[in-house]
């Protein structure tokens, strides 16, 4: 039997992305975000929700751009650090030993060591309450060649992205392949 546990954000899984931006002084910054995901296929767009109090908030508004750096599980400690430290007080890239790379397409940096990057131009913002949703049009995706499959597209098992569990405040990795989309459920189609 199901038990009501109240209203909350227990949607599983959520990503552990690093959102890149330049602050008012032109310093590269990144922040860990889990309130994020795909929001449109055409145009390709992603969304990330931030509090106004975050250092990245004003930077994204002013530059009208951000990047999404998708880390592999081997960067768990750096990803967690990017979520607990403030760019107002510390250069997170330097402290974590990561490389900020200036995008040639948008006015934002990305993490050079991470296997998958989405470069985004800000389309719009939506005030939701405690968080402001930033919707970015993906102008380019950059991927390390070793995470691409035979079809030239990124493969989740090769990226080995981090997943975040909001109810547990815990990171997880990706498990085994369970089935193929658009074919596994065909037996129910009449």
UniProtKB/TrEMBL annotation:
SMART domains with a match to the protein in the record: Flavin_Reduct
Matches recorded under SUPFAM superfamilies: FMN-binding split barrel
GO-annotated molecular function: FMN binding; oxidoreductase activity, acting on the CH-NH group of donors, NAD or NADP as acceptor
Name of this chain's protein: Flavin reductase domain protein FMN-binding protein
Domain of life: Bacteria
Record's keyword terms, sorted: Flavoprotein
Family: Belongs to the flavoredoxin family.
Domain annotation Flavin reductase like: ranges: 10-153
Cofactors that this protein relies on: FMN
A Pfam family it matches: Flavin_Reduct
InterPro entries reported for this sequence: Flavin_Rdtase-like_dom, Flavoredoxin, Split_barrel_FMN-bd
